[in-house]
Amino acid sequence: MAEVARDRLTERRSGERGKQVRRNDADAWVPYEEPSAADEGVAYGFPGCRPIRISRDEITDFEGRFEYWDADTETAWQVCEPTSIYHELPGQELARLTERIAAVRGEPIKSYGTGDLLVRDDQGEKHVIMQPDQILYLHPHKARRLGHAIEVGHDDLPDVVLEVDLTTDVRYRKMGIYEEWGFRELWVEIPENRAPSRPHRKPGVTIRVLGPHGYEETSESRAFPTWTADEIHAALNEDVLSASTVAVLRRVGRVLGEQGGTGPDDDPFMKVEREQSRREGIQEGIEDGIGRGVEKARFEMLAEALAARDIAMSKRLEEYAGVIVTVPVRTLMRAALACRDEADFLRRIAAATG
Predict the structure, then answer these.
(1) Is the same domain home to 173 and 59?
(2) What's the CA gap between 227 and 223, in Å, rounded?
(3) Is residue 253 situated within a structural domain?
(4) Average pLDDT score, the chain
(5) pTM of the prediction?
(6) Based on the structure, what is the number of domains in the chain?
């Protein structure tokens, strides 16, 4: 796998400059422009990025962020503009959203952030590294235990990879690499808060799933059934979860749970919360039932006392139910035995509560 990926990358690099390279069947042609002072990265497939040199020896200890690194040229491509919170938020928000889906589903979903995606050469040395903005595993317990990086051709690949195109454009090169490496689903998010350098880009999420002929754009996630691109984008850009997004997350979680035969009670946290809610609900029901029982017994006793004195009762007595249940039983019985009629009885208990 690593050798195939390396060969394809070598072929992709050779002869790219100045040519038109088709992104995929669903897209139009994209010109690979000559380097310019405005955007040097376009010519090499990394718009919005600048090259920095990182040697093979240095890459192991390098802790900075970059889009792509290649051992052949010992070059990494870094985003030109300073890191923005608008670039970082979608990846973090996606982790929080999928955690809520996982709770409803009753099975964990793991997010690994911007972990390295690594291809090694025949000698086992690092050959190509790419960094996404978020990585999701829907069945982490079934996946091979990961090391310091996700090794293409060795580790199980994630179910979803997120790229945030605030000042970059993955369609030029990174998308093709994801496709070549066999990543099953790629989400590309253009946030609502656009960068000043890219003011005309249309916000939204694009979902691409791997098919027999490469990536195909779809309106709905394959990994998260029924979750649409519009719903994902809306959720990623909300300051506070809306009622509609909560409903969507619960729906997706239930669908995933039905597929795996799990539910909220299989999630340790949700199980405790639901058990507590059930206990509180039972207790409230008991207390409410006792209250209604006491109220009924009091009215029956009062009705018997008034009937024994041939005092007619009307619906007015029901209207005073809120007062009657607060009056001590002894006071009620004294009023019932002393009153001349229903109106006199009601005046007496009203006076007792005043």
Answers:
(1) yes
(2) 9
(3) no
(4) 85
(5) 0.72
(6) 2
